[in-house]
Amino acid sequence: MDQRRIGVLDVSVVGLGCNNFGMRIGAPEAKAVVDAALDAGINYFDTAESYGNGKSEEFLGAAVAGRRDQVLLATKWGGRGAGQQAGAPAAVRAALEGSLTRLQTDHVDHYQLHRPDPDSPVADTLGVLAELRAEGKIREIGCSNFSAAQLDEAAAVAKELDLAPFASVQNHYSLLTRAPEHDGVLDACARDGVAFVPYFPLESGVLTGKYRAGEEPPEGTRLAAWGEAASSFTEGDRLERVAAMTGWAAERGHTILELAVSWLVSQPQVASVIAGATSPEQVRANAAAAGWALSAADRADLDAVAG
Q1: No. of helices (H) and no. of strands (E), the chain
Q2: Containing domain of residue 287, as a range?
Q3: 98-138 tens-digit pLDDT
Q4: Within a domain: 233
Q5: Of 44, 51, 173, 211, which residue is the catalytic one?
Q6: What is the pLDDT of residue 216?
Q7: How far is residue 75's CA from residue 50's CA, in Å, rounded to a whole number?
């Protein structure tokens, strides 16, 4: 599988999002998913301390035991429920120690601030991350859910203080959620040399063809389990737009899954598409979906269809 750079890391263009671990699947199923991902050439595994109340990190750590050198472990701290000042030095150190224990490792390859912390100066956060990097406990750093202004501020502070900058930002981006194109985030990534990692690239399965307008979510799917909380993924004309894009892809001999993944991969600022999976079959399908080389003309034509 092709690889791209996040700072010093060479990451697979399709990664594995591990937010299902500990929430929708147990440890044995998580290991089967990880095994399939490694077999498919995936080396980038993204989790967070908040996923499954720590179970995701635990299951991932157990799944890669004995083959740590084959994987790049990415985790996040400071998500919802993390309390105030997640970016303060003491909080960062405490969170990392917890993640290291759960992941059964002595270092995290990619450590990311899950949400901006308005109560802690970004200089303090970057400063402690630099210390942890010097101590060998992290290799690369990133952020998530940052605005363009926050990315610019962090880059400026890092340059002023001669600190390592955030190498990546992880925000919501997909064929159906195009906000980073319009809110300045992708422009800031280009300006500041920041890699972009899209989360919800498949819109929780909406961009795999599982759901149809006017029909209830199939039993056993994520959106069926979420109930009313799933409405944000299917509201308005989203399912009609998916149907139109599905037809556009089929006319070219591809599936909507292949379109969703390859469209993101065709964006050069995207480093890795971290798609979640609950089975080896889903992992294999996600990994194989990145092979469609969309041209600029394809993307422009699709824009007219996607709305």
Answers
A1: 13, 10
A2: 3-210+269-292
A3: 999 999 999 999 999 999 999 999 999 999 999 999 999 99
A4: no
A5: 51
A6: 65
A7: 10
